[in-house]
Amino acid sequence: MAFPGQVLDNPVSGERFIFSQTADDTGGELLAVEFVVAPDGRVPGAHVHPVQEERFEVVSGTMRFKAGRETVLAGPGDTLVVPPGTSHRFANAGESPAVLRVEVRPALKMEQLWETVVALAADGRTFRSGLPKPLDLALFMREFEQEVRAPFAPGLVRAATAPLAWLAARRGLTRRYQEPGTRDQARARRPAPTRPGEGRTTAARPSPARPSTPRKR
After folding, report:
1. What's the pLDDT tens digit per position in 98-109?
2. Which of 210, 202, 207 is nearest to 102 (CA)?
3. Max CA pair span of the chain
């Protein structure tokens, strides 16, 4: 179970997650984290949150958000809101770490999702892009189908990965999900007394929620 102040570092994607408010704190209504994204950091791939809204506030640095064919550059003070059901991805577009405040509503199992992604990366079970390898990805998509889906033909993707999920279960890979938090908490730690930007840090169309509009390129 996640706790306020918990830090998760993804060694592959260059993302650091610092939990501010957990699902337990808010009765499941909200999950709030601080993302610190390394200069070459990015979310592993485009994805959709079927029922959750994500809100990104850039504190420092420059981020590139992509939704559909639109690319938006966001800097300090810019806020982007991603409605449910929208394919999106993001990356650090600058030369220094970017810091964002992120809110996810409702929380669902996003805490466990991020913990699992970090654990898979630490175990060498992801590609260089940060995406889990096929057997792990099949189980991951099945376990977190409420939180994340493929950006296209999710039903077809689910059907195509079902045999891989079965094979992964036969190989004992489901233990990661049957013992939530056991392995992940070993990787969790409390934040070190350093500035957030010194660490490692994800929209339908990003919607500026403040008067200044992020630059389009």
Report:
1. 999 999 999 999
2. 202
3. 53
